[in-house]
Amino acid sequence: MIIPMYKYSFLVHHSDFISFKENLKEKGVLHIKERDIEPGAEVLDNIQQLSEVKRHKRRLLGRKADEHTVQVQIPQDGSELIEMLKSKNAQLDTLHHEQQQLDKEVEALKPWGDFSWDTIHKLKKQGIKVRFFYTAAKKYDPLWEREYSLAKISEERGFVYFVFYDTEDQTLDLDVDEIKIPEKELSDLKKQLDSIIKKIDRLNQELDKIAEEGIPVLDKFESDIQDRLNDASFLVNSGDGADGKIKIVEGWVPKSLDEGFENYIKEQSVYYIREQSTQKDKPPILLQNGRFSKLFEPIGKLFSLPSYAELDLTAFFAPFFFLFFGFCLGDAGYGLLLLIGAGVAKYKVDKDMKPLLSLVQWLGVGTILFGVVTGTFFGIKLMDVNIPFFTNLRETFLDDQQMFNLALGFGFVQILFGMAIKVANGVKQNGWKHSLSAAGWFLFFISTAIMVILDAVGGEEKWLWSVPHIILISISGLGIFVLNDPKRNVFMNIGVGLWDTYNMITGFAGDLLSYIRLFALGLSSAILGLVFNSLAFDLAPDIPVLGWIVTLIILVLGHGLNLFMASLGAVVHPMRLTFVEFYKNAGFVGGGKEYKPFSKISK
Q1: Quick one: average pLDDT of 476-503?
Q2: Sheet holding 159-166, edge to edge
Q3: Which position has the higher pLDDT, 524 or 540?
Q4: Phi, psi angle pair for 19, to nearest 5°
Q5: How far is residue 436's CA from residue 480's CA, in Å, rounded to a whole number?
Q6: Are 337 and 378 in contact (CB under 8 A)?
Q7: Transmembrane ranges (predicted)?
Q8: String of b and e for 397-428 (b: at least 16 CB within 10 Å)?
Q9: Could you give the CA distance from residue 512 to residue 499 in angstroms, rounded to a whole number?
Q10: Which residues pair with 159 in a beta bridge?
Q11: Contact at 8 Å (CB) between 516 and 576?
């Protein structure tokens, strides 16, 4: 759900403004309303510094000092440390560039060995020009060495390298390629390369040490910059009144924090107005969900936060996403790996990462659930295993046709659920009169589905064309064709209703068919698991120990690859079904801005 917001407007005397700003920062609950103006130079400068600090922190991630790491005097001032990092990273980048260039030159000279260019130049003064050639080994004819003044130097990677002594009375008329090589000594290049590698190692050791002891300094520096940025933004977003003697500040406070904040403000020497926020104000969005649904909030934020006037759909799509992921992965063995792996990782990660791992565990539970339903364990079809326990359960496992039908069933339920939410959203935002069209479509589809099910169950009476159903369709038709917009005349509504009918029927069919991807992904994951199992046992040599080792390697690599690819698809495609099919049928608008209070960040 979206927590309601209270809008505050403050009038502050300029002499009290700085202390008021610090008090607001200390309290840390007011989200400042941004004015539609260009940011000042101070704001841009702080943004640039913040970006630079984050960039250098990213370059330090993954580095770790060891016992061989050199000692480095690390500045405790963030700006000085940034300058040190800029200098060392610039040196490192330059050295890497020089190393790459030297590698190319060494590679070019390797086939020719370590010779002296002084000798080449002396020969040239005597009228003998040494030229360098190469050709494919299969083209090279040793007889050339008798016919021409040439000498084979080496043969590498299918090519022969040779030199030709070009004199005034002899030319080389062969199908070969001449090559230009650097006029440098190979031994000198290797010495230069060794020297550069040592410098790179030294710099890397220094950066490893900085990563170990300097990141806390950068963390504090980043917090200080963020504080300055917040202060600068606060000043930019504060309006002036009474020729600059009065400062105007506007912002929002969540209802859950409002009572304490208002009591706090009453003690300050400021005049304020407090009022209930409306959609017109475009207040920030703060979500509040249960323990299970809250885990799925990052997924919803990838698309957009809801607008203030509509419903938060997190709690509504979370159970479906949980099931859809399990449907796509659909292997109890893979689900166990996710459940146990994420559980172990929880003990090694920061607090901020633990909710994400809890989400992975829940998705693992969903995968186990569908692995049990289909009888799949690490690609093994349990219904084909000749074990009495599993033999007795064969009738309980769902086959491919049943899983296909289940995928369509999930789609039908989620689409109808989205339509019901659209009705509720419309009532919440615009009143019931503007939701009659959505309600009419929901009634049409749900009543038709119920009647089809009743006819499928059996009985002589045909419910689909019965009087009760015709009455329900007529009622839905009133909402769809006559009352779809109370501000338009009836004839206009009928025309718009006909066009909406075309879009709705074709759109509903297309949306429903999209859910087949759940079945397809689950099936492909199971088939790949089965294929890797077959390869592991078929390709293993018939040698007792070596055979089991090869089998184990193929199983680990194969199932690891399958788990990675299938998990990726099991995230992407349920997201697609959520953000396209479900959100569209739920009438999701989005565009909300996240609640970020003005608060003190420095530690």
Answers
A1: 75
A2: 150-156, 159-166, 129-136, 177-178
A3: 524
A4: -65, -35
A5: 7
A6: no
A7: 316-344, 356-383, 403-424, 436-457, 463-483, 512-533, 545-572
A8: beeeeebbebbeebbbebbbbbbbbbbbbbee
A9: 20
A10: 136, 156
A11: no
Tokens 């000043």: give the residue.
235
Note the helical H segments in 126-279: 144-147, 186-236, 255-266
Q: How far apart are CA 87 and CA 81, in angstroms?
A: 10
Do residues 592 and 306 touch, judged by C-beta distance below 8 A? yes
CB contact burial 39-63 (16+ within 10 A = b; e otherwise): beeebeebeebbeebeebbeebeeb
Q: DSSP string covering 49-109, please? A: HHHHHHHHHHHHTT----TTPPP----SSHHHHHHHHHHHHHHHHHHHHHHHHHHHHHHHH
Please report the sign of the dihedral spanned by the C-alpha atoms of residue 142, residue 143, residue 144, residue 148.
Answer: positive
From residue 114, how far is each of 110, 157, 197, 521 by CA, in Å? 8, 19, 21, 59
DSSP string for 427-463? HHHH-GGGGHHHHHHHHHHHHHHHHHHHHHH--SS-S
The model's pLDDT over 200-253, given as tens digits with 9 standing for 90+, comes to 988 888 888 888 888 888 888 888 888 888 887 887 777 777 666 788 888 899
Q: In a 10 Å sphere around its CB, with 0-12 CB exposed, 13-18 middle and 19+ buried, how is residue 249 labelled? A: buried
How would residue 388 be classed by pLDDT, with cut points 50, 70 and 90? low
- Taking residue 561's Cβ as centre, other Cβ atoms within 10 Å add up to 12
Q: CA dist 328 to 84, 252, 364, 382, 558, Å?
A: 49, 42, 12, 18, 18
363-367, 402-406, 436-440, 443-447: the lowest-pLDDT one: 436-440
User: How far apart, in whole angstroms, are the C-alpha atoms of residue 539 and residue 533?
Assistant: 10
Answer yes or no: are the C-beta atoms of 330 and 367 closer than 8 Å: yes
Q: How confident is the model at residue 91 (pLDDT cuts 50, 70, 90)?
A: very high
pLDDT average, residue stretch 415-426: 86
DSSP assignment string, 160-187 = EEEEEEEBTTB---SS-EE----SS-HH
In total, the chain counts a number of residues equal to 603
- Partners of residue 177 on adjacent β-strands: 134
Alpha-carbon gap, residue 390 to 372, rounded angstroms:
11
The beta-carbon contacts of 142-147 under 8 Å, at least 24 apart in sequence, are 144/174
The DSSP secondary structure of 505-570, one letter per residue, reads HHHHHHHHHHTHHHHHHHHHHHHHHHHHHHHHHHSS-S-HHHHHHHHHHHHHHHHHHHHHHHHHHH
